[in-house]
């Protein structure tokens, strides 16, 4: 019996004697199946290959980024956020090995894992079992869980206070249950949002964007982006970290609002003529 991992998205399945024919995450229109075809690995195979390592980097006081080198699957960044006697892992990575475990335990371990959306579920149960942590996923994305666990807490509603200083907000968009993490004490108390790619920082770091599917270039409706912008306008934050280590360093709240307007104007045909 193996817990197979899709090589394209990095999400792990529950134990099975043979690999599934298809990855349910990748066959859905927001993701894709590799042009080389469906292929699988396991965490044990990845560790035994000695091809990967996780780099843990301090981003600011109380925030560390975790990335797998070389990049695997989607290649997202996870973040370890340190609160008052409470550490939360924002989004997750597929690769987990002994050096990573040792480093994170030295940093105080992980008390909770919170996920933005299904593309980053990866080996979340492996991480949760290793660090004795709960997993928080919005109930609207329950159908996408490929490895069930009693550690998963399916939360409901629009907000959830996970611990002092940490609040999850369901803002939808990319997925119905798509969530972001508000870290109230981040950026010297000015507030930080960790957004996965529910809110994606663009190339110049002064703007953000929103998409239904990034690899397939499917935009969100204007009305959805307007609603998301209204919800985000109610949160106090000065900085945004996205899933690919891009950061809006200052005045991120204003950047989100002007970006949402630009996006809507583009969809409505008033931003440009071409």
Features:
25% strand, Metallo-B-lactamas, six-stranded mixed β-sheet, 20% helix, 274 residues, Metallo-beta-lactamase domain-containing protein, Metallo-beta-lactamase, Chain A, RibonucZ/Hydroxyglut_hydro
Walk me through this protein's architecture.
- This is Metallo-beta-lactamase domain-containing protein.
- InterPro entries: Metallo-B-lactamas, RibonucZ/Hydroxyglut_hydro.
- With 274 residues, this protein is of the alpha+beta class.
- The protein has one domain: Metallo-beta-lactamase, Chain A.
- Helix content is 20%, strand content 25%.
- The protein has helices at residues 43-49, 98-106, 124-131, 186-189, 222-233, 252-267; strands spanning 4-6, 40-42, 53-60, 63-69, 78-82, 87-90, 112-114, 134-138, 152-155, 159-163, 166-170, 179-183, 192-194, 200-201, 208-209, 239-241, 247-248.
TL;DR of this structure?
The protein has 274 residues and is an alpha+beta fold. The chain is built from six helices and 17 strands. α3 links the parallel β7 and β8.
Helix-strand blueprint:
Elements: E1 4-6, E2 40-42, H1 43-49, E3 53-60, E4 63-69, E5 78-82, E6 87-90, H2 98-106, E7 112-114, H3 124-131, E8 134-138, E9 152-155, E10 159-163, E11 166-170, E12 179-183, H4 186-189, E13 192-194, E14 200-201, E15 208-209, H5 222-233, E16 239-241, E17 247-248, H6 252-267
Helix pairs in contact: 5-6
């Amino acid at each position: 019996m193996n817990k197979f991992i899709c090589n394209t998205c990095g999400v792990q399945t529950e134990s099975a004697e043979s690999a599934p024919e298809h990855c349910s995450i990748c066959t859905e229109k927001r993701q894709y199946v590799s042009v080389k075809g469906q292929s699988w690995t396991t965490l044990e195979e990845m560790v035994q290959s000695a091809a990967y390592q996780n780099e843990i980097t301090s981003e600011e006081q109380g925030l560390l980024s975790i990335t797998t080198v070389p990049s695997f699957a989607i290649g997202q960044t996870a973040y370890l956020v340190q609160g008052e006697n409470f550490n939360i892992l924002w989004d997750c990575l597929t690769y987990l090995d002994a050096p990573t475990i040792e480093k994170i335990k030295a940093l105080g371990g992980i008390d909770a894992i919170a996920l933005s959306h299904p593309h980053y579920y990866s080996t979340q149960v492996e991480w949760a079992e290793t660090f004795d942590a709960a997993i928080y996923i919005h109930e609207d994305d329950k159908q996408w869980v490929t490895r069930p666990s009693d550690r998963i807490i399916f939360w409901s509603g629009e907000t959830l206070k996970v611990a002092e200083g940490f609040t999850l907000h369901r803002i939808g968009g990319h997925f119905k249950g798509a969530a972001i993490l508000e870290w109230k004490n981040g950026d010297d108390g000015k507030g930080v949002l960790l957004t996965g790619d529910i809110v994606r920082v663009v190339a110049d770091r002064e703007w953000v964007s929103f998409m239904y599917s990034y690899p397939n270039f499917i935009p969100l409706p204007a009305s959805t982006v307007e609603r998301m912008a209204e919800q985000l306008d109610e949160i106090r934050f000065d900085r945004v970290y996205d899933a690919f280590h891009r950061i809006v360093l200052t005045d991120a709240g204003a950047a989100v609002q002007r970006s949402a307007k630009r996006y809507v104007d583009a969809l409505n045909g008033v931003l440009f003529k071409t």
